[in-house]
Amino acid sequence: MTEIAPIALTIGEPGGIGPELAVKAWLRRTQDQIAPFCLLSPVSIVKHAITQSGSNVPLKVIDTIDEAASTFKHALPVLDVANITTDIVSGIASPRTASVVIECITKAVELATHGDACAVVTNPIQKSALYEAGFSHPGHTEFLAELAGPGTIPVMMLANSKLRVVPLTIHIALKDVPTQLTTELIVERCRITHHSLKDAFGVTSPRLAIAGLNPHAGEDGAMGFEEQTIMRPAIEQLRGEGIDVIGPLPADTMFHEEARANYDVALCPYHDQALIPVKTLDFHGGVNVTLGLPFIRTSPDHGTALDIAGKGIARPDSLIAALKMAAEMATKRLATGA
After folding, report:
1. Which residues have a Cβ under 8 Å from the Cβ of 298 and sit 6 or more positions away?
2. For labelling, which of 149, 159, 202, 335 has a CA lying 20 to 30 Å from the CA of 83?
3. Taking Cα atoms as reference points, which of 186, 165, 168, 178 lies closest to residue 233?
4. 31: Cβ–Cβ under 8 A, 6 or more apart, which residues?
5. Confidence (pTM)
6. Do 265 and 308 belong to one domain?
7. How far apart are the C-alpha atoms of 66 and 100, rounded to whole Å?
8. Do 257 and 239 share a structural domain?
């Protein structure tokens, strides 16, 4: 069987916990059976993180990502991406390092697009610092979609060992959800999710479940009409296309263990409706997956945690889960030729 290429791991916000997590993930490479990855970062940032960790972590600067596989067992492979002209202070995000963050992401996408990396795994970024430096995208996902090329429609999925969820709307006020939720949006997100589960997760016949917007999924119009006027037409259209989808379901009864056995992914009208159950079931093992890209992208399901950066207490569980999921997705894609 052909082995997958190394994973391209970005450093994320230099002042956050990303550098520490990368070092800790490498230290657990054998224990957690982590596939080879290459860290894209200025070497000085990695050396700083190693010093702070207090661990004797060997580092090797490599010229190409191809060298990562042979290096990984014995040393942390680093592609020395971007120059850095400012001191890094753990716990402080600076707009002066924004170009470093952006260059590392751009290089990772380039490697994945050319097939040199099997996937992109991104450590958390601090959007406020990037905005100060003129970053014009709402976040990581939108920037990755632009790098992927015109026509790319990214879909955010959160996943762990017990549940996969897709929020149909993301970072908007709750009062705006009913106006943003359309039949066309639901159909589009469900199609992308359906095909991604088949191609990258090896789910032969994906089963999708859609949560209702209102209490009791509207209770036939007694508590709202969005289920009848927006969701049901989308579900009927999807079923006509051969996609297995159920709903709209009352959100308060669709996330217990018995109910979860009836579907492979839950699509929810708004952010917290999706993220609360997945984070409650496995807070430290959650992974953020971007569907709809021409390459695999995962990331830890948490932020930069500036309040604990540099203290040596950050848990690498979510990053390790993201690395392992990226490798599993790449292996399935390779096997299916997707």
Report:
1. 119, 120, 121, 122, 287, 288, 289, 290, 322, 323, 325, 326, 329
2. 149
3. 186
4. none
5. 0.94
6. no
7. 22
8. yes
